[in-house]
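Dear support,

We are seeing what looks like truncated structure output for some complexes. This example has four components. We would appreciate it if you could run it in full and send us the complete token output so we can diff it against ours.
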Amino acid sequence: MGVSSYSPAETAEKSGFSIDTLRYYEKIGLLSDIARNASGRRVFSDDDLAWLHMLRCLRGTGMPIAEMLRYSELARGGGETFQERLELLQDHDRRVEEQIAALRVQQEQIRMKIAYYQDMTACEIAPV
Amino acid sequence: MGVSSYSPAETAEKSGFSIDTLRYYEKIGLLSDIARNASGRRVFSDDDLAWLHMLRCLRGTGMPIAEMLRYSELARGGGETFQERLELLQDHDRRVEEQIAALRVQQEQIRMKIAYYQDMTACEIAPV
DNA sequence: CTGCGACCTGGAGCGCGCTCCAGGTCAAGC
DNA sequence: GCTTGACCTGGAGCGCGCTCCAGGTCGCAG
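Here is the complete output from our reference environment:
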């Protein structure tokens, strides 16, 4: 069972965001209500980590900060906003799908080039 | 049969790069020996378009400009550099593969969230 | 001969997403 | 009591990859 309370350094390590980025995200409103201890230092909870994990998925799949901001505003809005959050994620999912498809197509071209160079270097190594 | 000679505007349209980007690429050395007509305007050939297509694949799969520069230096080096070009592309291909795999994993998480919201909104629409 | 529009150049500016810095606070260890 | 080190703040700076701008040239249509 985890401790359910994490220092900035631990949170950075677990979330994959740097401490600076965590502070930045709090500043711009991607992270809200991060607890503080008596001396004003941030104390992250398991919920915060779960939220950071979600942010990581969104960023990692190319969602711009502005849209993540929209999503976190919705998340603060409670159950009223489930439908909107759903639509936002579905739109994003579609873009991710397109992104992967485009990568595959371009990767295929690159692999054709690789095959070409393999032929070329094979010729050099064992000519005629 | 194509005309095999293209204005900057045509080239931009066909390659998907903006005219400004084409100029920028020439300036930094990603494009070399672009022909000029009598009045100093760029004239792109089918070879140039093929090269731009390759650049598009590389950029589109996330290769940084610095590495594309390395690749174009090698390309200028002739047959001597096939082996190096091959290795560069193979390394990149591996990174693209990892990138796609990472996208898939994160997409899966997002889809779990989508499923969750779908349950939630289903409940709201038809409660109890 | 004039106007227009596509093009040229060098260089400044921009948007994004962090990343770094100076100067300060606090708690624990020696 | 003093040092150390993790943390705090507001704000400046940065790297990347373009994108835009001012001022100029050229060739063709009217």
